[in-house]
Amino acid sequence: MPEGHTIHRLAADHDLVFGGRPLRVSSPQGKFSDGAALVDGLVLESAEAHGKHLFLGFGPSGWVHIHLGLFGKYGFGDAPAPPATETVRLRLINDEAYADLRGPTTCALITDGEKQAIHDRLGPDPLRARDTGEKAWQRISKSRTTIAALLMDQKVIAGVGNVYRAEVLFRHGIDPYRLGKDLTRAEWDAVWADLVELMREGVRLGRIDTVRPEHTPEAMGRPPRVDDHGGEVYVYRRAHQPCHICGGEIRTAGLAARNLFWCPGCQKP
Ligand SMILES: [Zn+2]
């Protein structure tokens, strides 16, 4: 599943490619035909992300709410668009470009009130300028759940996925099985600040890089990572390989329905 930086990048791409101009909106697959008809020909006024949710704003007509889920995919291209296949749930077109959305969990036209309800049930997002880690801390500091599970709970903090959770805990030497209530305020503030920085970098580069300058392949004289997720990381999908810092073996286990990766040498209980 894409992490929050991908969705924020998609919002920025929509603003850049389609923003401020009238747009043709359709649903070649038919599942979103009614919603598409209501915003077809209108101006895209804004595009916004919160965690893994994308919102395309069409003024008083409402918002197209998109959640990619596990299988959703977006493709952008230059106009003219090729004939749409039957798998395209949502197609956006202007004179210069088109975007096709396939296989999302959610693609629906919603009101301002419905959009607000989604914001209200999501935790703060490190990529939303107005959000702070405070609301997340209120929940984490009282929780008997592990910090690794809390970081994946979108009600606690929005947009963090499996890669950022593993990497940020490693970067701060925090055992993933530590309970929320056992984190210190200083640790949480440092984790939040780091997520803001790492995820902004993720939006900018379009991939997740989490190793510090002294641990890049060039600095360490090691071969670069080969993985279809791209990017240089400390622990994510590096099970049984040596830790870049202590040389110990990276471990893996299931937690909160996803595989967790950590270094027991660097992340002591
Ligand atoms: Zn280590």
UniProtKB/TrEMBL annotation:
CDD domains: AcNei1_N (cd08970). It holds the Pfam family H2TH. This is DNA-(apurinic or apyrimidinic site) lyase. It comes from the Bacteria. SMART domains: Fapy_DNA_glyco, H2TH. It catalyses: 2'-deoxyribonucleotide-(2'-deoxyribose 5'-phosphate)-2'-deoxyribonucleotide-DNA = a 3'-end 2'-deoxyribonucleotide-(2,3-dehydro-2,3-deoxyribose 5'-phosphate)-DNA + a 5'-end 5'-phospho-2'-deoxyribonucleoside-DNA + H(+). Keywords: DNA damage, DNA repair, DNA-binding, Endonuclease, Glycosidase, Hydrolase, Lyase, Metal-binding, Multifunctional enzyme, Nuclease, Zinc, Zinc-finger. Its EC number is 4.2.99.18. The gene is nei_1. Its cofactor is Zn(2+). It is an enzyme of class 4 (lyase). Residues 234-268 form the FPG-type domain. InterPro entries: DNA_glyclase_Znf_dom_DNA_BS (IPR015887), FPG_cat (IPR012319), FPG_N (IPR035937), H2TH_FPG (IPR015886), Ribosomal_uS13-like_H2TH (IPR010979), Znf_DNA_glyclase/AP_lyase (IPR000214), Znf_FPG/IleRS (IPR010663). One of its GO terms (molecular function) is endonuclease activity.
